[in-house]
Amino acid sequence: MPRVLLLFLFATVTIFAQGEAEMLRDQLLAETPIVEDLHELCDQIGGRVTGTEPNERAIEWAMKKMEATGVRTWKEPIRMPRRWHEKAASAAITGGSEWNPRVTCRAFSTGTTAEGMTTDLVFVGKGEHEDFEKAGDVRGKFVLIETKVMSNLTELFLEYINAIEVEDNAKEAGALGIVYMSSREKKLLYRHLTSWGPKTDMPVIVMARDDATRCKRLLKRGKSLEMTLKIDVIDEGPYVSYNVFGEIPGSENPEEIMLLGAHLDSWGLGTGANDNGCNVNMLIDIARQMNKLGLQPKRTIRFALWNGEEQGMLGSRDYTQLHKDELDQHLMAISIDIGSGKIDGFFTNGQPELRKEVAAACELLGPDFDWQHSDGVIVGTDNYDFFAQGLPNMVGKHDVYNYCADYHSESDTFDKVNQKNLKENTALLGVLMWNIANQEEWNYPRKTRSEIQAIIAQQELESGMRALNLWEGWEDGSRGLK
Questions:
Q1: CB 28 within 8 A of CB 426
Q2: Residue 397 to residues 58, 103, 146, 394, 452: CA-CA distances in angstroms?
């Protein structure tokens, strides 16, 4: 027998002996186009606010990339309530001092006339009820809200929760607009949703911390300041956008779906690299390498690139409504949305029993892998509607790396992504999805509304759900199990 043929046969036997999960792991850790794809999405397309031309280009880019992997690819419409995008925002301080602070809008802030709005700027501390009482009459004025420097995920979540009281107090007091001191240092600006979301009807801005603390010092020393605010935004009515999907059908139980999702959209200040372009490309690369190896799981693996996440997880919301008759066949939904820090565990979202599935599925990563799971519930990304529908769901738990510093900010760019971690995370998720899709049995039934309600109460989720405009939909049954 020729030596070349002997070598070929030996290599073939070795590959199949290695095992499919090991093959997939090694393929994902090897050189792949994942980083070049990330460059295209972030450096060439850029920030991808849903409803904008860059977002539309990102949808078509995602369709082409997913199609090129060789898996079944399609897109589905989602209903967006309000098309909003900041074109420009500027401010001028006059009175006791004169300069132009750096500012940007929070999402769905209303715009101004070309001449802008000019009125007094009043410091109201942290924006609590007693702070407004102490500040006196703020009707028709801009109110400046003090924040602390944000350094971890807990403090990040508190920004959203605290905004409920701040914004309600400002509206009740008759303020013309709200000025948040940036919680990031060194003039860094970022964008969050307001607590009213698409119902926002007043100017709400973030001012660079260095400028806002200057205003605070002047006001605390008795100086009077006026601010002229000019905001130019695209602000229109409802429209339609799209989610993008890829799918590898199951060989034995194709109707049973294991779903892995990451959101395609971003805010427009940076280029949406850690939030969440890196993980979009994770999904594409897993699909690519599974198909390249000719792997077909027993159950269907569906890859979801969500849109409208930043504006209230609207793409995943609409998916659960569009596919409501198939949700009993969705056995697991995993969301990846916390940057490129090393994944050291998963948020099991009130289902600690899922920990053993992760450990068993990822055993080949090493018996001493130090899992740092949390049974806390995440309500601020695309797992939420699967949680509210009672389905087993997890969110990747990352070492936060530089995620908080760059979150929603101008500095969330390609160069901040940890490429080594991204490759390792991709291998981990690829192995996890492959192995759980091939389990002989899956014994995690869908929860009832009362069981979900018990988790919400036990984990004290109401304030977080209110901060993200989710509570009303849960209470009236329009979003989640009735």
A1: yes
A2: 26, 32, 30, 9, 21
64: how many CB neighbours lie within 10 A of its CB? Answer: 11
Largest alpha-carbon pair distance within the chain? 95
Cis, bond preceding 438 (omega within 30 deg of 0) = no
Q: Which residue type, as a one-letter code, is found at position 254? A: P
CB 336 within 8 A of CB 330: no
Annotate 440-451 with b (16+ C-beta within 10 A) or e (fewer): eebeeeebeeee
Q: How far apart are the C-alpha atoms of 362 and 382, rounded to whole Å?
A: 23
Nearest Cα to 227, choosing from 112, 126, 64, 330?
Answer: 112
CB neighbour class for 466 (10 Å; exposed up to 12, middle 13-18, buried from 19): middle
- CA-to-CA distance for 461 and 378, rounded, in angstroms? 9
Q: What is the pTM of this model?
A: 0.93
Q: Which residues, 6+ apart, have CB-to-CB distance to 216 below 8 Å? A: 123, 144, 146, 181
Distance CA 129, CA 43 (A): 44
Write out pLDDT tens, residues 328-383: 999 999 999 999 999 999 999 999 999 999 988 888 877 677 899 999 999 999 99
* Three-state DSSP class for residue 478: coil
Is the predicted pLDDT of residue 1 greater than 80, yes or no?
no
Does residue 317 contact residue 79 with C-beta atoms inside 8 Å?
no
Task: Encode pLDDT of 83-141 as tens digits.
Answer: 999 999 999 999 999 999 999 999 999 999 999 999 999 999 999 999 999 999 999 99
Contact call for residues 257 and 325 (beta carbons, < 8 A): no
CA nearest to 272, candidates 472, 97, 57, 431: 57
Tens digit of each residue's pLDDT (9 = 90 or more) over 3-44: 443 344 334 333 433 599 999 999 999 999 999 999 999 999
CB 108 within 8 A of CB 200: yes
Contact 196, 178 (CB under 8 A): no
Q: What are phi and psi of 173, to 5 degrees?
A: -80, -5
Cα angle: 203, vertex 206, 210; to 5 degrees: 140
Q: Which amino acid is at 55?
A: N
